[in-house]
Write a structure and sequence with these properties.
By secondary structure, the protein is an alpha/beta fold. It is built from two helices and six strands. It has one domain: Transcription Regulator spoIIAA (2-Layer Sandwich). The N and C termini lie far apart (about 30 Å).
């Protein structure tokens, strides 16, 4: 088992904490999983990526750094409003702060 779980299901990157650990180990595990997914072709890029699940700030930075290069826009799910908030965008179809389903 790992300290951080990342799966691509139904066009959504699902993230969650695994075994208890400190952020120094969690960011290493998250980065390793993203590399594994990129090498397998599971994360091939595209116009939009939705991310859903619990995340620490250091892990959010790792995901942003790795994924912003291959996706045009990234939306993160906000459970308080029940929508994805566009938080990174290089795609003119999505503006920073847009809310999407």
């Amino acid at each position: 088992m790992t300290t951080y779980n990342i799966e691509f299901k139904n066009d959504i990157l699902r993230v969650s904490f695994g075994e208890p650990a400190q952020n120094d180990q969690i960011v290493k595990d998250a980065a390793a999983r993203l590399e594994e997914m990129a090498k397998s072709g599971e994360l091939s890029g595209g116009p939009l990526l939705r991310i859903n699940g619990p995340i620490s700030i250091p892990v959010a930075f790792v995901l942003a750094h790795k994924l912003a290069h291959i996706y045009g826009a990234i939306g993160f799910f906000d459970p308080k409003i029940g929508k994805y908030v566009i938080c990174i965008t290089h795609n003119p179809a999505y503006k920073l702060g847009d809310l999407i389903d």
